[in-house]
């Protein structure tokens, strides 16, 4: 049976150091079943333990690809896309870097379909990214595919008949193929989300992202 969080579960991303999750101050992140606590005042973006109700919002604040699904404590202060609490109880914790790379590729494909793109360079770049993710493509080969996809985006921007959705889709594809580090995965996701504003809504994209993360969490259980 597929594991799925309830409505009182929130999202939080950690940095990765030597293959393990750490908090922003460098201390080890709590493991599933454990609770992190804060004894001082609560202030959004300043003091307390933060988390977001949606994975998409949590990703915007992420510094790395380690994902945690958490529950807040009894004291909470809310903001538009996050909250801060005196406690953060960890339900699940897993490395989501590969999932985020795949998510970026999927969104880029949708953008290209919506733009009715026939430019082979963009589609080949996404395939090169997935080949690289399987360990079957070198960093230099991926870099070459990225550059070709970028050229496609620039060609679209220079064309007299340039349409914003099509150029955005190609830019998303270029971002999705960037070199293999967390910063590129996050950048790919953000550009893909921007491009997708001509198609799927942010709510639909968030649902898709959360489904992928839920599946990754289930596989890691």
Q: Would you give an account of this structure?
A:
Helix 2 runs antiparallel to helix 3 (120-133) and helix 3 (120-133) runs antiparallel to helix 4. With 221 residues, this protein is an alpha+beta fold. The protein has 2 domains: 10-95, no CATH class; 98-211, no CATH class. The protein has helices at residues 55-60, 97-114, 120-133, 139-158, 164-176, 182-195, 202-220; strands spanning 10-17, 20-22, 35-37, 49-51, 66-72, 76-78, 83-85, 87-95. Helices cover 47% and strands 18% of the residues.
Give the tags.
221 residues, alpha+beta, 2 domains, five-stranded antiparallel beta sheet, three-stranded antiparallel beta sheet, 8 strands, 47% helix
Give the CA-based shape: elongated
Gyration radius (Cα, Å) is 19 Å
Return the average pLDDT rounded to an integer: 83
What class do helices, strands and sheet pairing give?
Answer: alpha+beta
Separation of termini? 12 Å
Q: Which bin fits the share of residues in helices?
A: 40-55%
| Major β-sheet annotation | 5 strands, antiparallel
Strand content: 15-25%
Number of helices: 7
Total discrete domains:
2
Short description:
The protein is built from 7 helices and 8 strands, in the order ββββαββββαααααα.
Please render the helix and strand layout as text.
Elements: E1 10-17, E2 20-22, E3 35-37, E4 49-51, H1 55-60, E5 66-72, E6 76-78, E7 83-85, E8 87-95, H2 97-114, H3 120-133, H4 139-158, H5 164-176, H6 182-195, H7 202-220
Helix pairs in contact: 2-3, 2-5, 2-6, 2-7, 3-4, 3-5, 4-5, 5-6
